[in-house]
Write a structure and sequence with these properties.
The chain is of the alpha/beta class and 298 residues long. The protein has eleven helices and 14 strands. Helix 3 packs parallel to helix 4, helix 5 crosses helix 7 and helix 7 packs parallel to helix 11. It is globular, with a radius of gyration of 19 Å. It starts with a strand and ends with a helix.
Length: 298
């Protein structure tokens, strides 16, 4: 019988993984919060994906049936103040799923908190500063506990700042929405969605267990990709804005990103999952995205 992949939260990263790497699965089931979602949709690399509504509060018979047939699960639904919605509603069904042999959970490097620009790796204790980070830490622990109870490997993939097609500095510069915010000693890592997709594939293929940082090779100040994107587009970069000024108009969520600075190591990703980054820095990633942009709109 063909294998079934269950994507609980078919978002940006899960869609890219499904498009490129899910060919070994005969069936893909994805969930969405949209109650009007059709039973199925095509696309995502030509794959047919069965779409089921999941509002984080109730489980439909169709979703419970899909869990019972799932061979692998990719979890990208985020926790909230009430906890992890997937585990709260579907935890018992997942614990009893007879065929489930591997789980990949998408988390965030935000679980490490602020390190003043210092280096962190998977051995660094988690110490999130904000509520969102604490929710992620709790969710990671809960997924590990579920995996341990049923002896199923759970790979926790901690993602740096995600960018890729339709979601990158080039788009922001062209739209006039890019803000070149300057905060001394502030650095971020990033990760291209294509590298996230190949890391998910490697985690499933190796039945990986434990935490892995998904980050590029070069943490840099936040304005550097904006300047580089402007150079690719042949326009002047937006003016620098001191963080103290920019913070006045930021949402709490946006401001929380600037409350943390760290250099995220990706050695374990390369060593244990065998991943070679296609885009080791934002320069390779944005250059490739710019070339794609020119092909689509010469």
């Amino acid at each position: 019988m063909s294998a079934t992949l269950l994507c609980l939260g078919l978002g940006y990263c899960a869609r890219h993984y499904a498009a490129e790497f899910a060919g070994g699965f005969g069936r893909i089931v994805g969930t969405t919060r949209d109650p009007t979602a059709g039973a199925a949709r095509s696309g995502d690399g030509g794959r047919h994906i069965d779409m089921l509504a999941f509002d984080g509060r109730t489980a439909s018979p169709a979703l419970l049936a899909a869990i019972a047939t799932a061979d692998a699960a990719l979890i990208s639904a985020a926790p909230d103040a009430r906890g992890d919605p997937v585990l709260a509603v579907l935890g018992d069904a997942l614990a009893a799923a007879p065929k489930l042999g591997a789980i990949v959970y998408l988390s965030t490097v935000g679980v490490y908190g602020d390190h003043g620009g210092g280096r962190v790796d998977e051995t660094t204790p988690v110490r999130p500063a904000g509520e969102r980070g604490r929710e992620r830490v709790a969710a990671e622990a809960a997924w590990r506990a579920l995996g341990a109870a049923r002896r199923t490997p759970v790979a926790i993939l901690r993602l740096a700042g995600i960018y890729g097609p339709g979601q990158n500095a080039l788009v922001n510069v062209r739209s006039g929405l890019a803000r070149r915010i300057v905060k001394p000693r502030q650095v971020f890592n990033r990760i291209h969605v294509a590298d996230i997709a190949q890391a998910i594939a490697a985690a499933f293929a190796r039945r990986a267990d434990g935490a892995f940082n998904l980050a590029d090779d070069e943490p840099t100040p936040p304005g550097d990709p904006i300047v580089f994107a402007a150079s690719l587009l042949g326009v002047a970069p937006p003016p620098e804005i001191p963080f103290a000024e920019a913070e006045k108009t930021m949402s709490p969520l946006a401001a929380s990103f600037y409350a943390e600075s760290k250099r995220v190591a990706n050695d374990k990703l390369k060593r244990e999952l065998g991943v070679t980054l296609r885009y080791p820095t934002y320069r390779e990633g944005l250059t490739a995205l710019h070339a794609e942009m020119l092909q689509e709109n010469p």
